[in-house]
Amino acid sequence: MNAGTIEHPGILHKEDNCSSCHVDKTRGKSVHSAMEVPCTVCHLAQTQGDMTTLQLSLPKTEICFSCHEKTMMLRQHTQGGKKLCMDCHDAHSSNRRMLLLDPLNAGRHNSSLMLPPPQDTSSKTADRR
Ligand code: HEC
Ligand code: HEC
Ligand code: HEC
Ligand code: HEC
Predict the structure, then answer these.
(1) Pocket (CB within 6 angstroms of ligand 4)
(2) Where are the alpha helices (DSSP H) in the chain?
(3) Over the stretch 87-124, which tens digit does the pLDDT of each residue have?
């Protein structure tokens, strides 16, 4: 297996609808327009025997640029390209605007980002400490 290849828990078949199980990916305060394309544009699934493996169609450093231009504005807001888009945005959906990650869930990112406070304090994740 290549680096970045993961095993899907459960075999997938061509006709399986990813969203039938992963409903959360297409719901939230903001939902990525890219959810209108099949999940498999970004997630390549391969089933062999009794195992399905998944791989991103492009490396994490590139995958967002198949649709988003590398503009000056984007360079600035990724702090000169030092950060991955997914350090701040969910690729699918979010309970905040503009696909922004919930800072309470973003422990792995350890960034000094000045994100605005969550607006929806009644959201489930906001209570988790
Ligand atoms: C029959 C239900 C089902 C279907 C259909 C399904 N998944 Fe999953 N998937 C799961 C479950 C259960 C997990 C493990 C829990 C989780 O991460 O949500 C999972 C996990 C994943 C993961 C995380 C794996 C990891 O180890 O990090 C990815 C990525 C994923 N699925 C993508 C897909 C894609 C793409 C499709 C469509 C080609 C798909 N899934 C279809 C049930 C399903
Ligand atoms: C624009 C590209 C793109 C599309 C389209 C996309 N994904 Fe993803 N997905 C990603 C990336 C990138 C990651 C890895 C995120 C990370 O590691 O920070 C990911 C991770 C995941 C994961 C595991 C981590 C998590 O966030 O739970 C699941 C499950 C998943 N995707 C399911 C789906 C499903 C279901 C669809 C279709 C409804 C879909 N994805 C469509 C880019 C995409
Ligand atoms: C299949 C094409 C496609 C890919 C791949 C893609 N996007 Fe998008 N994205 C769009 C479209 C279309 C829009 C809506 C128009 C716009 O704002 O440019 C959008 C909008 C956004 C927005 C603004 C959302 C809002 O609510 O205003 C963010 C943030 C975003 N994308 C992040 C990402 C990230 C992060 C990745 C990589 C994981 C990515 N995009 C990959 C098509 C894509
Ligand atoms: C350091 C955190 C951070 C990183 C990294 C980041 N973003 Fe953002 N992004 C934000 C914030 C915060 C906003 C909301 C800005 C606002 O309030 O207008 C945003 C807004 C956006 C928007 C909508 C507004 C616009 O400029 O069109 C898009 C699209 C977007 N980001 C795409 C991306 C992509 C693609 C990447 C990776 C190349 C990326 N972002 C990386 C924090 C980040």
Answers:
(1) 64, 68, 73-74, 77-79, 83, 85, 87-89, 98, 100, 113, 115
(2) 18-21, 72-77, 124-127
(3) 999 999 999 999 999 876 654 444 444 455 555 444 44
Q: Which atom of ligand 3 is nearest to the CA of 36?
A: 1
Residue 50 in contact with residue 57, Cβ under 8 Å?
no
Q: Tell me the pLDDT of the chain averaged across its residues.
A: 83
Closest CA to 101 of 128, 127, 22, 91: 91
Ligand 3 atom showing the smallest separation from residue 63 Cα: 37
77 token code pair: 């807001």
CA-proximal residue: ligand 1, atom 36 (nearest): 18
**Can you give the pTM of this predicted structure?**
0.90
